[in-house]
Amino acid sequence: MKRTFLTAFALLSLFNAVVKADEVPNSTDDKTVVKHLNLEEVEINASRVNTKMKDLPQKVEVITKRTIEATPAKDMGELLKKTAGVDIIQYPGISSAVSMRGFAPSTSNKYNVILIDGRPAGTTNIATIDMSNVERVEILKGPFSAQYGSSAMAGVINIVTKESTKDIAGNASVSYGSFENLTGNVSVGGALSESMDFDVSYNHQKQGKDYKIGKKNFFGKSDAKEILDPASYGERMEHSQFERHNASARLGFILNENWKINVHQSVFVANGIETPGSFWQVYGKNSKDMNKYTTSADVLGKIDIHNLSLSPFHSKEESTLFNSRYGDTENIHKNYGFILQDAFKLGDHSFAFGIDSKTDEFESNKWTTEGDVTKPSAPAYRNICTGVFGQINTKALDGKLNIAMGARYDLIDLKLDANKLLGNEASSDEYRVFTQNIGVKYEILQGLSAHSSWGNAFYAPDAFQKAGLYTSAYGTTRGNADLKEESSNTFDVGLEYKNFEKGIIFDFTYFKTHHKDMIVRYTEDPDGTPYNGDEYTTYKNIKGADMNGVEIEASYDFGAVADYNYSLKLYANYTHIIDATVIESKKQEDGSYKNIDNQMRYVRDNNANFGLEFDNLNGFSTRLNARYIGHRYEDNWFRFYDNRPDVKDEILRHPVSMIFDYSASYSFNENYTIGLSISNLLDENYTEKDGYNMPGRAFMAKFSYQF
Hints:
Layout: H1 2-20, H2 31-34, E1 43-44, E2 51-52, E3 60-63, H3 65-70, H4 76-83, E4 87-91, E5 95-99, E6 112-116, E7 119-120, E8 134-141, H5 145-148, E9 155-161, E10 169-177, E11 181-193, E12 196-207, H6 221-228, E13 242-256, E14 259-275, E15 286-303, E16 306-322, E17 328-346, E18 349-367, E19 373-374, E20 381-396, E21 401-416, E22 427-445, E23 448-459, H7 463-467, E24 469-472, E25 475-478, E26 486-499, E27 504-522, E28 538-557, E29 567-587, E30 593-599, E31 606-615, E32 620-629, E33 633-635, E34 651-653, E35 657-668, E36 672-679, E37 698-706
Parallel strand pairs: 6-9
Antiparallel strand pairs: 1-2, 3-8, 4-5, 6-7, 8-9, 10-11, 10-37, 11-12, 12-13, 13-14, 14-15, 15-16, 16-17, 17-18, 18-19, 18-20, 20-21, 21-22, 22-23, 23-26, 24-25, 26-27, 27-28, 28-29, 29-30, 29-31, 31-32, 32-35, 33-34, 35-36, 36-37
C-alpha cells in the first residue's frame, strides 16, 4: 500500500510535468514564475540589516508562502514541525512549545525569541499566531541575544506578514474535513490611493467533533504500545473540540517618497476551548478562554543613506482556565515597548544601530470552586529590558568573504508587586548583561562555501524567582537573591553548496553549546536550613548543560534539467542531537561536591522532515512530506495517578514516530483553486507530550477564489 502510493505520486508528478511543459514560458526569462524557488535572494528581515540569505553566515531556514499553502497545518506550531528543522511539543487545546538545537521546549518559550515583522509577538504560545496573512517565516538558528536580548539562546523565529501595495486583490477560501473541521478565510489588500494602502484578513476555525487517535505505528510497535497505552489506539480524544477567530489589519500612510507609517492591529479570540487533561483525563475535562489583542506601528523613513525606523508595540494576552476540580485561574500577560533603529550601507558594508525597550507584565488571579477569590500561584511582576545594540555585516575579497558582527548591552529590571493574599512585599532587582556574536562565510568555489559562527546569549529569570517571598496554595516560595541569569556559548561550523541553476541545495552544520547556570526549581533550601520549620520551593543555578549535534539540509530539483519549466523537488531537513547532558553539582555524604551528568529531558535525539514536492508552475502542485521524531526522555508525572495505566517508571523513553502528510491543489480559470490534504496519512498513533495523543488520519477539502 505504501509503495503503491509513493509510485503513483511520482508518476502523477512526472506525467503532469510532461503535459504542461509546452504551456509554460521559458522560466529563466520569466522571473516572476520561478522567483519563489530561489531563496538565496530573499532578504532576511530578522537579520536587522535585511541581508540576503546567501550572505548570512548563520544557519537560516525560510518557509515560503507556497510551502505554507501546501502544508496541512491549523496553526503556526503545526506548520513549523512539518516544514522546519525544529521540534514542537503540541497539546490539544491550541497550545505549542518550540525547541531548537537541544534546548528543551517549554510553554513559556524561554529559549527562543518569537517575532512578527521584527517586533515581539506578544505571546509564548505560537499556536495562537494567525497564518492567514503570513508571507513567509524566517528561522535563524543559534544565539542572537546580541540582536534581541533575553531568551534568544536557541534562535529567532520571525513571521513576516503581507504588505500589499499594488492594485486591490484578495482571496477567500473555505475548507471542510474530518472531525467536523471547518475553516473559513478571507484576505484583501492593496492601494486605496497614492498615499494609502492596506491589508485585512480574517480566519475562523472550528473543530466540532472530538478527534480520533491513530491506529498504527510505523516503527517500534512494541515500544510504542508500552508507552502510548494499547487502549488509546483508534479511540477518541475526548473533550478536544475548539473554535477560534483570528483577525488582522494594516493601514499604510505614504507621507512622501521617503516616509511611510504602517499601523497594525490583530485579534485572537478562542472561547470554550476544550482541554482533555490527557487521554486518561488525569486533570479532568476542563475548558479555557484565550484572547489576545495586539497594536503596533512602524514609522519608516529615509534620510540620505540612513533607513530609520521607530516601532512601538503593545499586546495583551488573557487566558482563563475553568477547572471544576481545583477552581478557575486567570493569567494576564502584557507586552509593550518600542524599537528605534538606523540601518545604512557604505559600499559593501551594512550597519544597524539602535535601542529597544520591552516590558513584560504578568498577573495571575484564582478562584475556588465556590467562586471565592483565593491565593494566585504567584504575585504580579514585571520584567523590564532596555538594550542598546549594533550590527555590522561586511564583505571582502571581491565579495567572497562575508563577516557579520553584533553586540548588545542590556539593563534588566525585575519588579515584584505586593500581594496581601500571598503575604509578600514589593521588591525589585536588576541585571546588566553584555552579549556579542560573530559569523564568517567564505565562498571557496562558486556555490561552495564554508561558514562558522560563535555567540553568547542569556535568559533573565522572572522577578519572583529572584526576589519573591510568598505562600500560595502550593506552599511557600522564596526567591534566591544570588540567582544568576542563564547563559550560553554556542559555536557552529558548516559547509554548504547551493547552485540554483543545477537545482542543488546542501548544508551540513555542526553545533556545540555550553549552557551555564541553568535555573531549576528546588524543593528545599540549598543549605539544608528549613524556612520556618518547613520545606519550601526556591530556585537555584545548576552547573549547566552541554549540547551538540548536526543539522543537514538537502534538496535536489529535477526541474533544473528542464530549465525550470516545472519544479520536482526531493528534499530533507534533519537534526541529530549527539549529546544533551545536564550537569549538576551534588553534595556527597562526606561534604564534598561531585558533578552528576543526566540526560536532558524533552530533547529528541533525532528530528527530520523529508519528502517530494511537485509544481508545474501552471496551477498544479502536490506534496508528500514525512516527519520523523526520535526518542527523548520525559518525566512520568502521570505515575502518581491511578488513571495512568501500568507504566510507573519515573522516567519515560519516548518511542519514535513517523507521520506522513499529503496535499494537492489545482488552479483553473485563473481565479479558482481546489485542493485536498491528508494529515497523518498512515494513521500513526503518536504523542509529543506523554498522554496527549495527536489526531490520526484526517482529510480536508478546500476551495478558494482569487479576486
